[in-house]
Amino acid sequence: MITHYHRGDLPHEVSFGDVVAVDTETMGLMVRRDRLCVVQLSNGDGQCHVVQLARDYDCPNLKNLLAAPQVLKVFHFARFDLAVIRQYLSVVCAPVYCTKIASRLARTNVERHGLKDVCRDLLGIEMSKQQQMSDWGSTELTPQQIEYAATDVLHLHALKSRLDHLLEREGRRELAQACFQFLPHRAALDLAGWGEEDIFSH
After folding, report:
1. Domain range holding 121?
2. What residues in the chain have per-residue pLDDT under 50?
3. Contact between 186 and 178 (Cβ < 8 Å)
4. Backbone angles phi, psi at 76, to 5 degrees
5. Which residues neighbour 122 within 8 Å (Cβ) at sequence distance 6 or greater?
6. Helical H runs in the chain?
7. Under 8 Å CB-to-CB from 104, ≥6 apart: which residues?
8. CATH number of the domain that residue 108 is part of
9. pLDDT digits over 26-43, tens only?
10. Is residue 201 part of a domain?
11. Over the stretch 166-175, which tens digit does the pLDDT of each residue have?
C-alpha cells in the first residue's frame, strides 16, 4: 500500500479512474454536530490518498471528484458518508455503490455486515479498527491514523467485485442498484430530520 497524505485538498494533478473507493472520518457519529475531518480515496490500485480537511472546507478538487457524474463512488455504509459530505462540503455525491447494502442484500446467511466482517468473510483479510475512535480533528494526523484511514478504502474495489457476483447469483442486482440510486435521498432525509422514522411504514 502506498499512502499519500494531503492537507486541505487533493492536488490538481492527482487523477482517478471511473470507480473510486471513498470513506470519511469525523469527530463522531452525529452529522450536524461532529465535523468532517478526513476524506480518503483509492483507485483500487494499492494507492490511497488521505485528505485532511481545513475548517473552511475550501477543497474544489475533492468536491469536483465527489460530484462527478461519470465517476462511481464506492463506500461502505454510504448513508452516513453521503450525509456528512453533503453537510460539510455542500456536495450531492453520486452515483454511488454501498458495499454494506450489497452485503445485506446478497449475504442473508450472515448477521454481521461491518467492513471488518465483510473483508474477513469475502477476502480473508483481517482489519484493525484500533484507530477508529481516535482524534481525527487533531492538527496533524499520526502515521497510525493515516494507515488506518487508507486501509478503510484499500479493499472496497475487491469487495465490490465479489458482491456484484453474489448479487447476480441471488437475482438481486437490480434491487441493489435501485437502493444505491436512492442513497443520496436517504442522506437528505437524515439531514432533514427523518433519520430514525420509517416514512414507508403504515
Report:
1. 2-191
2. none
3. no
4. -115, 120
5. 159, 162, 163
6. 60-67, 78-89, 99-106, 115-123, 143-154, 156-169, 173-191
7. 113
8. 3.30.420.10
9. 999 999 999 999 999 999
10. no
11. 999 999 999 9
